[in-house]
Amino acid sequence: LKMSWLWLYLPLHLLMATCLCHSIKAPTTSSQQSFKADLFNFYHSLILADGKETTIHLLKDIPKRYYFVLEEGRVLAPFSITVTPCDVPIEWSILVYKSLPGFPGKATPGDHDTQEVSKSQKAPSMVSTIFNYKGNSVETYMGMSSHSALYLLEFLSTERDTHITVYLTTDTTSGHLYPELPMDPRIDVIGVGHTTVTLAWKHSPSVLQHSESIQYCLLVNEKHNYKSLCAAETAIRSSGMKLPPTLGLSLSPYLLEPQQVMILSNSELSIINKVSSGEVRQVCMGTKNTYTVPNLSPSTQYYFDVFIVNLLTNASAAYTGTFARTLEEPEPKVTEMKDGKVIHVVLDGKKQKFYSLQYQARHKKIHFTFQLCQGQIRVHITRNGKTVASENLSGLRYVSLKGKLLDTYLVQLRSTEESNSSVKVQASPHFHKPLFPLLPESLKIKSFSKLRTCRSVTIAWLGTQEESKYCVYRKRIEEDQIWRELQSTDRCSGPESRHKSEKVLCKYFYDLNLQRAVTTETIKGLEAGTFYLFDVYLFGPSGIPVRYHSKVVKTRKKC
């Protein structure tokens, strides 16, 4: 009698499994093995929560199983299951364990699940597969079941470890976790330019009902479309980047990584990520259903995905992605060079395009001078269409060429890094009238650690055999500013860009013996334990300065 009371405390799923065991009469060997396997699958599965999105992590080639039993007391219970793969395609299926004759709550003849029983299952079997799918699309199954049925969901990834989200609900009348898509979920490309693409899409019914908590977010990339928001975020993370939980909630600048740039303009939030496969942009624009994507590269194919995001639940739904190719950039304009005139060229590293200069020779010998101001630049020179020089610029560079009268030289410049670069260029037949002063063997500034004190620093630099003017400047900086200050230095800028208070001194010197053409200077009046940035400017006959490489020195903290 006491043992019989224990049945009252058993969960419904254990009771059903026990009844299944005791209801089978003398099964054959094959059916017995099959049923034992079903019971093994059941006992090694987890319960799936109702009304809550569940994240499930899958290991490669290892199936994972979840089960659920629908609410008792209802003859027919509607339910829906939505599975969202967040990376690679997966396989998933729904199996139903039917109640046996004599067990309360038999399935009705019109049961939706009975109609979808797989043909591969034989009638005597207690288990049937009612749904299976393989792919990486967001898939929803809707069904109607008797309360005595037990369901098993099986998930498998055969490509690699991944994760998915699963949402089970038996409440199909009080709204949806996911925002609704319109009847036509396509994104229309309504305009394409050299650097812009204009998109439009139909409004989600959720926006009209809950405009305060719903917004559209756009993802732009150069790789492919994504079928869900979690798939897009997984792809970006796999490139070595951390992302905020969702596009819709990526509103805090404190969540940004060094590879990210956040732009807030006209109530629109843009986050630009630098990844190995190109640039990935996230733009959230509220409830507007048109958007012009700016600052794209010409002649480049982009993929566009729009997600409707519920800010309260983090849930999202994806429109059908589209793609477009920006127009080819027109032929670049060619700037004519004149004898002795200096041209300052600024190159956009993002566009990676050539800037062209043309020079027609009036003498047989031609001298090109390049002074690299910022970044990294590659120069390519052709004469009458044939390449005569091609190299990466560094510091100050002279290129001397010999040809014929009226030869046409084309100088093409391109930035080799993503940030902006700049260079000064001069073409002249008169090498005896150089634009820049005679340079020493090295433009490095040396400091002497042993001569450092709390109030002074001693530095030295090389000179030349030509008497020239040298001016020394100092600037106090913080330790966390050093890298940025050195990287952003414009090596073409002269003392006119410096504050008067930063000037230390100017002096003239030279030595015919290059081994002795070195000078030192002790800068006094400094503060203890402080970082200082020192610069030396060299002036030649033309008055155009050459800047030595900046040097950072810290005074002693205690003396």
TrEMBL record:
Source domain of life: Eukaryota
Subcellular compartments: Secreted
Q: Which UniProt keywords apply?
A: Glycoprotein, Neurogenesis, Repeat, Secreted, Signal
Q: Which GO terms describe its cellular component?
A: extracellular region
Q: Where is the signal peptide?
A: 1-21
Domain Fibronectin type-III, first and last residues per copy: 179-316, 437-545
Nucleotide-binding recorded as keyword: no
Instruction: Tell me the GO molecular function terms.
Output: heparin binding
Q: Name one Pfam family in it.
A: NDNF
Q: GO:BP terms for this protein?
A: nervous system development
Kindly list the residue ranges recorded as spanning the membrane.
Answer: none
User: What function does the entry list?
Assistant: Secretory protein that plays a role in various cellular processes. Acts as a chemorepellent acting on gonadotropin-releasing hormone (GnRH) expressing neurons regulating their migration to the hypothalamus. Also promotes neuron migration, growth and survival as well as neurite outgrowth and is involved in the development of the olfactory system. May also act through the regulation of growth factors activity and downstream signaling. Also regulates extracellular matrix assembly and cell adhesiveness.
> Which protein, by its recorded name, is this?
Protein NDNF
Q: Which organism is it from?
A: Pteruthius melanotis
Its organism's taxonomic lineage begins at: Eukaryota, Metazoa, Chordata, Craniata, Vertebrata
